[in-house]
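Task: sequence design from structure.
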């Protein structure tokens, strides 16, 4: 990273850490509510250890890191919230994503060293859809926290992305932003607040062309969707071009 990019990243990381601590302290019994919802939804028992999850992989990024992507998942699941992890996309979906980039070396991306991984909210639930139940059961305070977290993540993620692009000294050092998992970005979805806020942050158009939307890596949906597109169009472009075309199609579906 350039000196300017490194400072941008450090400022984001510090503010993110502080915000996680603030949200955890605001509702100390949130984890009990999450456990209650887990039981109500008949989720197989698992150790619930972290209610609001900071991504410890951010602490492994150094000034020498070459950041090529910012990947935005939904929210921390069962594996991500474990005390031994507290990292994003480390479950099956993360393994699939890692495998995709290892298989397609022509993209020049190592998922664990060239990617900043964030979420639309750091609030944990066993399944993303369970966030609705948590909000319904938790009342105004919990609803307010989750909604606030979405808006904060959208605004600060857009700021991070745009500033990293502005501070890059070459096109290769200006990362793309991938939103993976878009079903809850649609109208009446959990993350419509995130979607609207993110779009507003790019209202001047700067670096909006570097934002793409994809199916989630879970259940191999990202790769299946990409392969289906390639087969249906019979195009012979390189893989990066095909990925961009798919990302633009879904971006237009979600953002118009």
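Answer:
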């Amino acid at each position: 990273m350039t000196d300017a990019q490194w400072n941008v990243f450090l400022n984001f990381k510090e503010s993110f850490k502080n915000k996680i601590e603030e949200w955890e302290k605001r509702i100390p019994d949130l984890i009990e509510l999450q456990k209650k919802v887990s039981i109500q939804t008949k989720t197989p028992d698992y150790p619930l250890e972290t209610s609001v999850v900071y991504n410890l992989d951010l602490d492994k990024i150094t000034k020498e890191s070459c950041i090529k992507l910012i990947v935005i998942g939904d929210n921390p699941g069962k594996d991500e919230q474990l005390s031994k992890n507290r990292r994003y996309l480390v479950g099956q979906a993360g393994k699939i994503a890692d495998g995709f980039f290892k298989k397609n070396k022509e993209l020049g991306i190592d998922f664990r060293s060239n990617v900043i991984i964030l979420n639309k909210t750091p609030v944990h639930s066993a399944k993303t859809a369970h966030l609705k139940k948590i909000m319904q059961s938790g009342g105004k305070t919990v609803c307010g926290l989750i909604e606030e977290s979405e808006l904060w993540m959208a605004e600060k993620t857009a700021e991070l992305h745009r500033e990293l692009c502005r501070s890059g000294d070459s096109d290769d050092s200006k990362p793309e932003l991938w939103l993976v998992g878009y079903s809850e970005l649609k109208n009446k979805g959990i993350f419509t607040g995130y979607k609207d806020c993110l779009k507003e942050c790019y209202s001047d158009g700067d670096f909006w062309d570097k934002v793409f939307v994809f199916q989630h890596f879970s259940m191999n949906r990202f790769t299946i969707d990409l392969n289906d597109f390639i087969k249906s169009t019979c195009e012979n472009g390189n893989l990066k071009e095909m990925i961009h075309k798919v990302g633009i199609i879904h971006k237009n579906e979600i953002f118009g």
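The helical segments are 3-26, 30-40, 92-103, 130-167, 192-201, 221-233, 239-255.
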